[in-house]
Specification:
With 462 residues, this protein is α+β, with helices and mostly antiparallel strands. It has 2 domains: 22-209, no CATH class; 217-407, no CATH class. The protein contains 15 helices and 14 strands. It has helices at 2-16, 51-54, 57-60, 75-83, 113-116, 171-181, 212-218, 242-248, 260-270, 277-284, 287-299, 386-392, 395-407, 412-436, 443-460, and strands at residues 67-72, 91-97, 100-109, 139-142, 157-161, 189-196, 199-207, 225-228, 309-312, 315-317, 321-326, 331-336, 370-372, 377-380. A hairpin with a 4-residue loop joins β11 and β12 (331-336). The longest helix has 25 residues, at 412-436. The two termini are 34 Å apart. The relative contact order is 0.13.
Length: 462
């Protein structure tokens, strides 16, 4: 079912395009266009120890700063990753930040079919291949490279998202901020400028890696398991097999696992009835937190998330989320992820792939898959899932949390303040990228997209 979603998403990308560069020459040399992105050095530790060793991650994710990061790697290794980005293979290099250089670090491109479409030279978009044809591709930097135990401001990895699918350059940052403001453990995100071998590549969104460092920062007990994109029960209401939990595990991979907690959670959901489903949620989750999650997700129309069940070949699945399993409280926390397509479908279904047909708690076609949208992508109503149905049962709390959200973090005054500040913060970097690269978004396109975003926000408050 994920393959069907990716097929449709790629088709939309091919129709509308996410990268205007039509150069078919292999990307093997850095551009001669250089933009000075040197930032002001902020002294953190005047004792002489490297700041990246003594500082913590709050400095990297300081919302008031637009940091610059410079990657350096040999021409041979740069050619290697540029000539086959889809391999997602690390090569060695260095990271320089505010005058300090960390080496070696691992450097690679990251993405999926949707992320690489129109940005690689290969003719088969269903199997991304070939050399890089877009200036920007999402990147991952591994600090603990080749067995190193060093950390960069307390972080093991940095991931820079290209925002190629987001002309506003704001969706990820705004979405994560809104979730966080409503008390939901969420990745921190800031804009950042990135240079490679001295060439200004452009503006990215730096999103916190969801790993054990994330868990230790956001939870009192950060030693629990993190799972990526595995729902406790499948679309038939059955407990997922241990192999599914094991494949989704992102922390404690080397520890013996019995999966007792997540299996207990899943079993209670699977066996739940209309009469006791709220009790099951109260046992295993923070109710205020998960209902707040649902309110934010549905208000900003994050339609490519856990409430979109894509269907294919008789089964359905969702994606773009993580779970944190608290081993002390024995509670589960749903962690939001990936919002480059959020906010699009508030006024109308602009994106033909991801829209969810139903309002919160609604059911279509008696819980059987049905086609929806311009491309007739098959989906199933989220409320048919027993866990989602249990959350829907908290209807009074949902209404209360929505009112709090609309009058608080999502109010026009608050979102205008954020967007105005971030617009001023990244305006120069956006203009510089446009001047340096033909396939960068123009200032006018960006401003128009921001205007559209503000209209979407205003409509969502009604």
């Amino acid at each position: 079912m994920k393959e069907t979603f990716l097929y449709a998403l790629v088709l939309v990308s091919l129709l509308f395009g996410n990268c205007s560069n039509d150069d078919t020459t292999p990307f093997v040399d850095p551009s001669e266009n250089e933009v000075d992105t040197t930032g002001t050095v902020d002294p953190i530790d005047p004792t002489g120890e490297e700041n990246y060793l003594s500082g913590n991650s709050d400095y990297i994710f300081d919302q008031s700063k637009l940091h610059s990061f410079d990657l350096t790697l040999s021409q041979e290794d740069y050619d290697k990753i540029n000539n086959d980005p889809a391999a997602e293979e690390y090569v060695g290099g260095s990271l320089t930040f505010e005058g300090e250089t960390i080496a070696p670090v691992g450097i690679r491109y990251k993405g999926s079919i949707g992320a690489f479409v129109n940005c690689l030279s290969g003719s088969n978009w269903g199997n991304p291949s070939g050399y890089k044809t877009c200036t920007k591709l999402s990147m991952k930097i591994k600090i603990n490279w080749e067995g190193s135990d060093e950390k960069f401001y307390g972080l093991k990895k940095l991931q820079f998202h290209s925002m190629n699918n987001d002309p506003t350059q704001m969706r990820d940052r705004l979405a994560y901020h809104l979730f966080s403001e409503m008390g939901i453990p969420s990745p921190r995100a800031v804009h950042a400028r990135l240079t490679i071998n001295g060439e200004y590549v452009g503006l990215f969104i730096l999103v916190e890696q969801i790993d054990n460092r994330f868990a230790k920062y956001h939870f009192d007990d950060g030693d629990g398991n993190i799972y990526k994109e595995v729902w406790p029960i499948d679309d038939k209401g059955e407990v997922q097999p241990d192999d599914a939990f094991r494949a989704a595990l992102k922390t404690n991979e080397d520890d013996p696992q019995d999966f007792d907690l997540i299996r207990g959670f899943a079993s209670d959901i699977s066996l739940s009835t209309v009469q006791n489903r709220k009790t099951v949620v109260e046992k295993w989750m923070n109710v205020d937190e998960i209902i707040s999650y649902a309110v934010v997700d549905r208000t900003i129309r994050a339609d490519d998330g856990p409430f979109h069940w894509y269907c294919d070949f008789g089964s359905c699945d969702n994606h773009n989320y993580y779970w944190y399993e608290d081993p002390i409280e024995e509670k589960f926390h749903l962690i939001p992820w990936d919002f480059d397509h959020a906010f699009e479908n508030i006024i109308s279904n602009v994106n033909p792939v991801v829209p969810i047909k139903d309002g919160w708690g609604e059911i279509t076609n008696n819980c059987q898959p049905f086609p929806y949208g311009f491309l007739f992508v098959s989906q199933k109503s989220a409320a048919c899932d027993k866990l989602t149905a249990a959350w829907v049962a908290f209807d009074a709390l949902y209404d209360t949390k929505r009112s709090e959200f609309i009058s608080g973090p999502f109010s026009k005054a608050n979102t205008d303040l954020l967007l105005n500040a971030w617009t001023s913060q990244i305006e120069s970097a956006t203009s510089s990228a446009s001047a340096a690269h033909d396939d960068a978004i123009s200032t006018l396109q960006w401003q128009n997209a921001l205007s559209d975003l503000r209209e979407q926000l205003d409509f969502a408050r009604l």
